[in-house]
Every structure is written in C-alpha cells, then in structure tokens.
C-alpha cells in the first residue's frame, strides 16, 4: 500500500521565494556568487589542453603529497622517480575525487526531488542542479589528466586491480563442503543477485518506507522515475560512497534521503565529509599554486586545476554546511527512528572511511587495505621500478609495516581533518555523542594501531600473492 502511494504523482507547489531565514540568504548569495565566478570553463580548457611532457619535469605540489613519501623506498629512489610519485599521488587523489563527485551528482538529484516537493527552496534546488552540471566537467578534466599521466608513467600496468579476482577462499572452505547445495544457491549466485540479496533489499526498503510513511508526499521524483523504469535505488561501489557501507546499506540510507526532508538535510552532513576530505588535501595545492604565482615561476597544469577546482568547490562546501547545520531546523524535529538512522550512517562513515592512517598515501585518513596493496605491488612491478615480486614485497613490508616519516605526515593531515569534522558534527544536536566528537576517527589517529593493522593485512596479502605465483 505504501509503495503504491509513493509512486503516485506528487503535485509540486508553485515556485516561491525561500523563507527569509539567515541560512536561506546564505544559499541565495552562494548560488549567485557560484554562477558569477564559475571556473568550470577554465578547468575544461586546462583538461583539454593538458600535455604530460610539458608538465613532467615539475613537482605538482610540495613533495610530501607524493606516494610513498617518507618511506624507506622513497629515500632510495631517483629524482625522476620521486617526480613520478608526486604526479601519481595527484592522479590517485583526483581519480578518487572524480568517482566521489559522480556519486554526489546522484545524491544531489535525490535530495533536490525532496526539496522541490516541500516547496519554498527553489534557489537551493537551482544551486544543487548547477553543482551537478559543474561536477560533470570537473570529472572529465580529472579523468583526462589522470589517464594521460598514468599512460606516460606506467602504461596500462596499474589500470585496474584484478589480482584478487582469480581466486576464491570459499571454493575450498569447509563451509562450502558442509553446506547443502540449495542453501548455497539461496545465498550465493553466479548470475546477478541471489534470492537472499533480493529479499534482504526488499525488506530494508519496506522498513524505510513504512517508518517514513507519513512523509510519502515528499518522495523524490528522481527515485520515483527509477521505480517507474524498474531500476534499483542507486548505491555506489567506488569512491567515498563505496567505502562508507555495503551497497545494500547505502540503498537503505538513500531511500531515507529521498523521502524525509530532515534526512535529506542529514545527507549533507555526509556530503560535507567529502568536501572536508577534499579541502584537506587540495588546499596544499592551492598554497603551492600561490607560491609559484608569487615567484613568477611555471605553474604545472594539474596544480592550476587544483586551485580553480577548490574555488568552485568552496561554494559546494558552504551549501553542505548550511543545509547540514541550519536548514534541517526548518522541519519538524526528527523522530527517534530518523535519529537512529542518521546516527548509524555517520557511525558507519567513521568506522569504514576515517578510522585509520596510511603511511604510503599521506593525507589519506583511511587504513591501508588489500586493494591499496594491490595497487602498490603493480606500481613496483611496473616499468617505473621494474621489480620482481619478492623484491617488491620486501620493500612494501618496510613501507607498510615499519614506522617512518610518512606516518607522521599522515598524522598532520589527520589532525587537520578531525578538527574540521568536529566543527560541523559538534553542532548537530540530534547526532550520537560518538559522532559529534568524531570518536572513532579520533581513535584511528594512531601510528601503532596503523602498524598493527598493516602487519596483519600485509601478511595475508603477501601469502596470497606468493601462493598465486607458486
């Protein structure tokens, strides 16, 4: 019954001016300033004209934003290899940013549908739609520069992480041998979704729509259109979104962000996390750009892209902050259920996204996982280094599992991001205390914990690699 009502046509109220609250004025001013100072065309031009050879002999940032910076291997490599590691750091950072901005574009459309249905937020919706347009140009610029750079430095060697795709622990496990075939087929399918995943996703969707049934009139037109086409609720597998939670949980959260006005606002506290992570790593590029500009020195194209991108993204960050900490108060206070879901989403974000340090990717406030190790193994075996597997693993063990300067650099970036996160989440009265204080993230800012995690992860990783080559 609820699903049927949700699919019914919502009659949007006529366009009206937003209420003249302080935050409505901030939104209106931000929208007009963003339109007036749009750097999208500049970024598009830089991306289209990028030539790696013209930028290959320059650092694109200060050296500390380089892969493997501060590790024993970094100290041993040649000046040209250090330049390449600096360039590949930019590529890795902005490849991640491109995927995350694609996710942002989807959720902008999900939440815009809610705010349009509420009425009175036309300027905000116009801003979110304009941001989505900007993101599409940003993404293409990052991808062009990233692809040309990777091809010039390592060729196709590290375009993908297929190492783990060739074996399956389950194939030889005692669980499979002892589990009856019908039960295995219920939980695991080699062709699309298994019966279990279909039932699980349907159940989570039903829970969300039942608990938010009194807000069905705000159901996002974007999600309604997906329903009409028989398409699933979006859930990213990559980027920041893919790290936050498993896809079935992301679909569950998305339904909430696409029905409840309060939850749509709560999503922007999550979007602010992406804004803050980006600024934490991007602002050093801006400082470097300004130093080069002041000295009258050559400015590499990627450094200029970072500078102009942050100028665009500053408006996006303002919107995230304004919706997350002020606009949610326009609506009725959240129910106990909405508070629970909002708390769970941010807790998962802390646990899965911001609960560690990386000593090989400074500025990355995420623990080092097997997929990152796959990347570095391929990098060390690429033409840039030309190592054999055992030599590469030996260097990786020193970089991942021994304390070095890279971890101290990581702590600096972690502390800066933690401060930004607490400034926003500390103001959200509906959030759990551990989320307001960013308790999980704070606990992850430990070199000893990072090393402990890396020892375990690297041991399993190296055993898998050597077993495949034997």
TrEMBL record:
InterPro entries: CylC-like
CDD domains from the UniProt entry: CylC-like
Region (Disordered): 1-21
Domain of life: Bacteria
Record protein name field: Uncharacterized protein
Record organism: Aliterella atlantica CENA595
